[in-house]
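Action item from last meeting closed. Structure (421 res):
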């Protein structure tokens, strides 16, 4: 006897109820993003592996431990995308999108893949929606992107969201900070886990990403990046804050918010729902002013973010918020004899054409069984087509809540069903 094949660890089946919510979020976020001038972009789910190594950073957790890498049949090294920014940047350069009016505002929706240890809110395949605004270094754009990210989550009715912001400075001022951080970390090596100790020389900023409590504690009195940021970047950050204050968006300054990718510069931010526990980040992003030029593209400053759709779903569930209600079934068409089946089929099709939600009985079940089915499916009404109805060119509409029945023409049925919906 062979074992049943089950889904891979860290993946999920979205059964209809959950899939409906997923698609609702994708749709409502699309509308929200369109308000801010974003247009969609779709890139492949797999890319050449080097794309991510070069952009996210070879010493990050994502590239070192979590990337799904594979060789295709011709021996080319590929990777399932672990995030959406690098592919968008690649597509921007490859398709010369810099010719468009700037900032070029793009959004994407799709699955990402990371070989992480699965737990609630952390999967190996997960959905992200992200926005990238390329071609402007205006601090008003930073504020706008943060407002979009936070605003969409707030629009769903999620309460107690925490917006954290920080500035990581440009490459020049960050160099001084990294030297100070290295000194600090080297003086406390024994307090850090093995991975962190190894990171001190290679990429000390990544120590902030460590999920171990002891490492986080050891970082408590570490030097703060904002103290090392140059005057120009400080002024930029001040402007971002002024714009956020102007629209009364509450935020917390978090000097440790450096985010898990190497490409971030200046403004970084995250939206958290602290009550969600370990996986409480709903979204995160920041500026990446050098990524496009590092890739051989034009010098285009940019900023973006992504939210995790499953995390939003968990947040909604934890606060008992229902944002999606499935449209009711307007009617269930019941037919009695084989001779009325074609009429039932035609009527069903006609009503659907009038944008009504309709199902019809199948498999020659009895009238009783069909009515039972209509009840089970919570149809508002049943539309009965028997010999008498066909002869009289009328339909019997039964209200399944009140039990009332009336004989109506097809047009009257349409009006009545619309009235009830
Ligand atoms: P990141 O791309 O790491 O900045 O993550 C952006 C958002 O994606 C996070 O705030 C989470 O909401 C979500 N996310 C990241 N990793 C995972 C994962 N393994 N499973 C589910 N959601 C994730």
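Sequence:
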């Amino acid at each position: 006897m062979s074992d049943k094949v089950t889904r891979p660890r860290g993946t999920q089946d979205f059964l209809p109820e959950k899939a409906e919510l997923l698609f609702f979020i994708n749709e409502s976020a699309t509308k929200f993003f369109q308000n801010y001038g974003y247009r969609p972009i779709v890139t492949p789910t797999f890319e050449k592996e080097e794309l991510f190594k070069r952009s996210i950073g070879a010493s990050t957790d994502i590239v070192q431990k979590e990337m799904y890498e594979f060789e295709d049949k011709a021996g080319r090294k590929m990777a399932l995308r672990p995030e959406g920014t690098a592919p968008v940047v690649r597509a921007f350069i490859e398709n010369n999108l810099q010719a468009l009016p700037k900032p070029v505002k793009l959004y994407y929706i799709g699955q990402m893949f990371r070989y992480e240890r699965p737990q609630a809110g952390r999967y190996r395949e997960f959905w992200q929606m992200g926005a990238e605004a390329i071609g402007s270094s205006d601090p008003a754009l930073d504020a706008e992107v943060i407002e979009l990210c936070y605003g969409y989550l707030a629009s769903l009715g999620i309460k107690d969201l925490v917006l954290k912001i920080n500035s990581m400075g440009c490459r020049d001022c960050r160099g001084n900070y990294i030297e100070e951080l290295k000194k600090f970390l080297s003086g406390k090596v024994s307090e850090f886990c093995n991975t962190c100790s190894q990171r001190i020389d290679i990429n000390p900023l990544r120590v902030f990403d460590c999920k171990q409590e002891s490492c986080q504690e050891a970082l408590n009195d570490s030097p703060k990046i904002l103290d090392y940021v140059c005057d120009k970047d400080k002024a930029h950050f001040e402007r971002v804050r002024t714009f956020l204050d102007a629209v009364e968006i509450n935020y917390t300054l978090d000097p440790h918010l450096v985010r898990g990718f190497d490409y971030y510069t200046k403004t970084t931010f995250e939206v958290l729902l602290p009550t969600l526990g370990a996986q409480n980040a709903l979204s995160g992003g920041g500026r990446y002013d050098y990524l496009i030029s590092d890739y051989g593209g034009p010098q285009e400053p940019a900023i973006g973010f992504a939210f995790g759709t499953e995390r939003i779903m968990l947040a909604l569930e934890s606060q008992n918020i229902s944002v999606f209600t499935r449209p009711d079934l307007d009617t269930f068409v019941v037919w009695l004899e084989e001779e009325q089946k074609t009429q039932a089929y035609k009527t069903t099709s006609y009503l659907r054409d009038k944008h009504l939600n309709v199902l019809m009985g199948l498999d020659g079940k009895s009238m009783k069984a069909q009515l039972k089915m209509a009840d089970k499916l919570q149809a508002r009404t049943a539309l009965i087509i028997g010999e008498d109805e066909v002869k009289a060119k009328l339909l019997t509409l039964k209200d399944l809540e009140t039990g009332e029945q009336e004989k109506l023409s097809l047009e009257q049925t349409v009006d009545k069903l619309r009235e009830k919906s």
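Note appended to the action item: Residues 83, 114, 116, 121-123, 126, 128, 260, 281-284, 306-308, 310-311 surround adenosine monophosphate (CB under 6 Å).
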